[in-house]
Design a protein that fits this description.
Elements lengths: L9 E7 L11 H11 L11 E5 L13 H13 L3 E6 L5 H10 L4 H4 L3 E3 L8 E5 L6 E5 H4 L4 E6 L1 E3 L3 E3 L1 H8 L26 E2 L10 H5 L5 E4 L2 E4 L8 H5 L5 E2 L4 H16 L7 E7 L21 E5 L2 H14 L9 H5 L7 H6 L4 H9 L7 E5 L5 E2 L1
Parallel strand pairs: 1-16, 2-3, 2-7, 3-4, 7-14
Antiparallel strand pairs: 1-15, 5-6, 8-9, 10-13, 11-12, 14-15, 16-17
Helix pairs in contact: 1-2, 6-9, 9-13, 10-13
Length: 389
């Protein structure tokens, strides 16, 4: 009998956000430090390696990102292993502006005790082309990620207007790919996933555009202008989709294929992870201050789900599956975007997707199909008994 063997569940370490005693040893920060000292990194962050610690710097008004003290704890853990860490993200606005945002949000060498760099360079065009396969084809991986021997990926769980939620998979897919590659067009950068169906943003007739200029102000490339009561977009557009999210009249859109977008996320995530040998990436998901919007936005809403804790794993699929399960089990918070779900008595397994009317699980399932990881996992509370899911 040649039945396919059932995948072995991946082990995920879980640290609850709850603290029960007035003691630093019971704080989440101290427990994270202890967990990182004991977690089996294996071949990742080996002695002598230069290791990127991938985070999201946030935006000018998006300050509910991973707190610098937690990032510093990961830096210290990597240093203890004899490796040389640097904290990094890829360009999401003009590079010099993004580094200023990072500094303002607390990500700097003084607070983290290691260099803070842009993985694709100050202009966002330092990258290496990799074939990601269908449906995106060639993608440009940020060079400081592509060339690194191992990596630690810190992901803040939150909602996302197109993906439903953002965790480790989306972080790899969007955060590891250059926004503006030196060679080639936008079709080889992270914007490709947003625009697989349409080319440029479309100003639809209904609802009508009010010419308020919000899209023009939010464009990181200055590609949008309003002239003679007409909105114009130049070819310098990165296809990031920020203008669509920012439009207060919902007059701006692009033709979408949700299923294709999630397949693109999975393909891009595999392409980034595929530049590392097996076992060379450690993923840490922070289920804290889980707001409904991406940290790319110039604002942050109040959290919609109660704080849960921190997860650590070598498997990006399993850690995202566990994150969605734990977020679904957590209480929804009144006075937030979850109010509609609370009123409806929501009992589903995807609160972020329910808010955005998306299926967040698609990217997770497609990533599993591509062999990026397994949907099954064993949750191992630190320190406590294991729990199978």
């Amino acid at each position: 009998m040649n039945a396919r063997a059932k995948p072995v569940p991946s082990e995920i370490w879980f640290l609850t956000a709850r603290a029960h005693r007035f003691d630093y040893k019971d704080s989440l920060l101290c427990r994270l430090e202890r967990a990182l000292a004991r977690y089996p990194f294996g071949e990742a962050a080996a002695e002598g390696e230069v290791v990127p610690i991938k985070i999201h710097f946030g935006s000018r008004g998006a300050v509910q990102t991973i707190r610098p003290a937690y990032v510093a704890a990961v830096v210290e853990a990597v240093v203890r292993r004899g490796a040389h860490p640097f904290v990094t993200d890829t360009v999401r606005m003009l590079g010099h502006e993004y580094l200023a945002v990072a500094n303002r949000n607390g990500y700097n060498q003084s607070s983290l005790r290691c260099p803070v760099l842009l993985a694709d360079g100050i202009f966002g065009n330092d990258s290496v082309e990799v074939d990601a396969g269908p449906p995106v084809g060639v993608q440009s991986i940020a060079s400081a990620i592509h060339d690194a021997p191992s990596m630690v990926v810190l992901s803040h769980l939150k909602g996302h207007i197109q993906a439903g939620f953002g965790g480790a998979i989306k972080h790899l897919a969007m955060g590891g790919v250059s926004s503006h590659p030196r060679q080639g067009s936008w079709e080889k950068c992270r914007g490709k996933a947003h625009f697989l169906v349409g080319n440029l943003p479309v100003w639809a007739g209904a609802p009508p555009c009010t010419l308020c200029g919000t899209c023009e102000r939010h464009c990181p490339m200055g590609a949008i202008s309003i002239e003679d009561k007409t909105v114009r977009v130049t070819d310098s557009c990165w296809r990031c989709g920020r203008c669509i999210s920012a439009c207060p009249s919902a007059a701006l859109s692009t033709p979408k294929d949700e299923d294709l977008f999630h397949r693109a996320l999975a393909a891009q995530a595999r392409a980034v992870a595929g530049t590392f040998a097996p076992g060379k990436i450690v993923y840490v998901n922070f289920l804290l201050e889980m707001q409904p919007e991406c940290d790319c936005m110039d604002m942050c809403d109040v959290p919609m789900v109660q704080n849960v804790g921190v997860l650590i794993s070598h498997d990006p699929v399993a850690i995202d599956a566990a994150s969605l399960d734990l977020a679904a089990d957590a209480p929804l918070l009144p006075g937030s975007r979850a109010d509609r779900l609370i009123a409806e008595g929501y009992k589903g397994r995807d609160p972020f997707g329910a808010v955005h009317l998306k299926d967040s699980w698609r990217q997770v399932r497609y990533a599993a199909e591509l062999g990026l990881g397994t949907l099954g996992y064993t949750l191992k509370p630190f320190p406590a008994k294991e729990k199978q899911r």
